[in-house]
Amino acid sequence: MKNRGIKPDIYTYTVLLHGARTKEDVKDLTDELKENGLSFDVNCYTVVINKHCQLNNLQEAVLLFKEMKDKGVEPNTVTYTVFARGLCHQGYRNHAVALVDEMISKGIQLNKSTIRALEVVIKKV
């Protein structure tokens, strides 16, 4: 793509980030995205937060979630769900419940995946 003079856009990077396998891959792609003057949208943030949760890099997921809100990018149902699931899997069930409470207070609808993440919390209590 680059060899043909075609610059990747945010959608291209989001797909590439979805397929990233290591923390280094995620960092390299996000650095490149920023170097190319692109900004994360809600979908890109969601994919990267999810990826960090999957790679047991919860601290980075927390920072990104805060960053997205600070930059005025509103998390959606999927963002909240992947982050809550990541928190649950890392043992931060109370934080996951607080996140879902925030979601509800903002009027963001729960979906089946959100409810399944909460079921994990309930079963382990």
Automatic annotation (TrEMBL):
Keywords: Repeat. It comes from the Eukaryota. One of its GO terms (molecular function) is mRNA binding. InterPro entries: Mito_RNA-Proc/Resp (IPR051240), PPR_rpt (IPR002885), TPR-like_helical_dom_sf (IPR011990). PPR repeats lie at residues 41-75, 76-110. Pfam families: PPR_2, PPR_3. NCBIfam families: PPR. Belongs to the PPR family. P subfamily. This is Pentacotripeptide-repeat region of PRORP domain-containing protein.
